[in-house]
Amino acid sequence: MTLFEMSGQVLERAVEKLSLTSLVLATSVFTLTVGYLGKLMFKQQHAGHAKYPPHIPSSVPFLGHAVAFGRSPIEFLEQAYEKYGPVVSFTMVGKTFTYLLGSDTAALMFNSKNEDLNAEDVYARLTTPVFGKGVAYDVPNPLFLEQKKMLKTGLNIAHFKKHVEVIEEETHEYFKRWGRSGERDLFEALSELIILTASRCLHGPEIRSMLDERVAQLYADLDGGFTHAAWLLPGWLPLPSFRRRDRAHIEIKKIFYKVIKKRRDAQEKDDDMLQTLVDATYKDGRPLSDDEIAGMLIGLLLAGQHTSSTTSAWMGFFLARDRALQKRCYNEQKTICGEDLPPLHYDQLKDLSLLDRCLKETLRLRPPIMTMMRMAKTPQTVGEYTIPPGHQVCVSPTVNHRLQDTWSDRLEFNPDRYLNDNPAAGEKFAYIPFGAGRHRCIGENFAYVQIKTIWSTLLRLFDFELVDGNFPEVNYTTMIHTPTEPIIVEKKKF
Ligand code: HEM
Ligand SMILES: *[C@@H]1O[C@H](CO)[C@@H](O)[C@H](O)[C@H]1NC(C)=O
User: Fold this and answer.
1) How far is the CA of 230 from the centre of ligand 1 (A)?
2) d(CA 20, CA 26)
3) Ligand 1 centroid, distance to 342 Cα (angstroms)
4) Which residue ranges make up the annotated binding site for heme?
5) Pairing status of strand 181-185 against strand 487-492
6) Which protein residue's CA is at the shortest distance from atom 7 of ligand 1?
7) Is residue 109 in contact with ligand 1, taking CB distance under 6 Å?
8) Contact, 494 vs 320, CB < 8 A?
9) What gap in Å lies between CA 58 and CA 42, rounded to an integer?
10) What is the number of the ligand closest to the CA of 481?
11) Which residues does the record give as heme binding sites (predicted)?
12) Ligand 1: distance of its center to the CA of 434 in Å?
């Protein structure tokens, strides 16, 4: 091992073990953006007549508010909103972030053009090494929009009908390992299950059948690319996680290429997502290359993996905390599907409206994507303020989902709030777990099918309780806010 590699390893270990706080310290050693910051400050002083959004002062020059934000981002943003209003800027690690808080100002992001508020500039350094070139944020946005359309074609009702069957089957199979009763790691179980179900539904039976421990490890290594380290540290650093990620990327693609070739050579067509991609063409008639398909398959799996697994885990804890609600959900299974609880059907899923509202409410209080981000490329006017180019413009679903003026009993888990006509004071962007506008999620319907099928099955199999009444705290160290100590008490129903 060279000295260079060794120092990479040491740095990485520091980065992995510690929270954002210490990561930020590690990063500041590199002072990657000091020059940039200097330029920015120079620009701010010479702004002329434009009025910039209020900037939260900080006595720490480079790190700025990274420590407070890293410790408790939602509280930080809520306090900023109280003190400074719906548009507020602050500095972290030499970068200026401007948050648009609340529905009215969030509209700026969702109605903007990608040339003005740009997604690639902030996301590509994370996603391109994981998905590969030629897809998502590696290509001009009009091309990605075409790719999203192809994916959407593959997420249709005919396919969902089959998904319900296989998700129910996979869930039964997976949870055979849980005994009659005991304390279990719910988040770990659902993460493992959702790789299996997502792989089978979105990649197809061939790729699912190859998903053994080795392949699961490759996914984990790829996934190790989505870290604060990858976002903040320069990509040329010899970090072990970067190298594991790059190796896994190559290995996974090799597996996918073989399956894609078989599909292309087959006499008869299948009817699933992979077939949709094999048959898809861009507007100019060009079909997708094997590399593009492989990249899209990786993207599909990872886009749905953490989002759906944290959401389903949180939903489990909300149901475990409120036993009466859990009972109502179980009774709904019987009313809608039949007293003897036969296998689920897609058509019944729609009618499970209480379960639907529980999922909706889970996504309100624990939206897995806590911040959407864009780079301002042109000056942006919002109210009386001008956001200058170079700011990272952000909207936080979590904050919008719990604003005092918008939501009544804002922190209560109350699925029945959606029975009222106007649960969010009629505000357009008060509820945005899947985003809005040109970057909106295409996976919403699939996520609902997957999570509702899993929870229908689990409610039929088990009763759930919290461990000594303890509801998990939010773990803010990862990019997706997961439950800490995600242990649940289960008892088999029969
Ligand atoms: C509970 C589950 C999910 C949640 C909460 C969620 C949330 C989001 C959000 C907030 C965005 C907007 C990001 C932004 O504007 O910066 C987004 C975009 C997207 N999501 Fe999801 N997602 C979920 C599941 C999925 C699944 C299952 C798939 C694929 C099958 C998927 C594919 C995508 C894609 C392709 C985009 C477009 C990104 C863009 O155009 O820039 N998502 N999602
Ligand atoms: C929070 O998440 C990180 C990353 O997954 C994990 O290493 C850590 O143990 C978690 N912390 C707690 C208290 O659960």
Assistant:
1) 20
2) 10
3) 32
4) 441
5) antiparallel
6) 434
7) no
8) no
9) 17
10) 2
11) 441
12) 6
Atom index in ligand 2 nearest the CA of residue 485 equals 14
Q: What tokens appear for 119 in the block?
A: 């997604």
| Closest-CA residue to 385 (of 40, 104, 78, 64) | 104
Residues recorded for the chain: 494
Ligand number nearest to the C-alpha of 228: 2
* 244 burial type by CB count under 10 A (0-12 exposed, 13-18 middle, 19+ buried): middle
Which two three-digit tokens encode residue 14?
């520091």
Q: What is the pLDDT tens value at each position of the chain, 494 positions in all?
A: 444 555 555 555 544 444 444 444 344 444 333 334 444 444 444 456 789 999 999 999 889 999 999 999 999 999 999 999 999 999 998 999 999 999 999 999 999 999 999 999 999 999 999 999 999 999 999 999 999 999 999 999 999 999 999 999 999 999 999 999 999 999 999 999 999 999 999 999 999 999 998 998 999 899 888 877 787 788 888 889 899 999 999 999 999 999 999 999 999 999 999 999 999 999 999 999 999 999 999 999 999 899 999 999 999 999 999 999 999 999 999 999 999 999 999 999 999 999 999 999 999 999 999 999 999 999 999 999 999 999 999 999 999 999 998 999 999 999 999 998 889 988 999 999 999 999 999 999 999 999 999 999 999 999 999 999 999 999 988 878 999 999 999 999 98
**Cβ–ligand 1 contact at 433 (below 6 Å):** yes
Helix axes 290-321 and 120-131, enclosed angle (nearest 10): 100
The model's pLDDT over 426-444, given as tens digits with 9 standing for 90+, comes to 899 999 999 999 999 999 9
Most informative mutation of 441, 453, 455, 482 for ligand 1 (most atoms within 8 A of CB): 441
Where do the domains of the chain lie, and which CATH numbers do they carry?
Answer: 1-131+370-432 (1.10.630.10), 143-368+441-494 (1.10.630.10)
**Alpha-carbon distances, residue 96 vs 46, 92, 242, 370 (angstroms):** 17, 6, 26, 18
Q: How far is CA 123 from CA 120, 231, 235, 389, in A?
A: 5, 8, 13, 17
Assigned token pair, 343: 């296998």
| Cβ of residue 300 lying under 6 Å from some atom of ligand 1 | yes
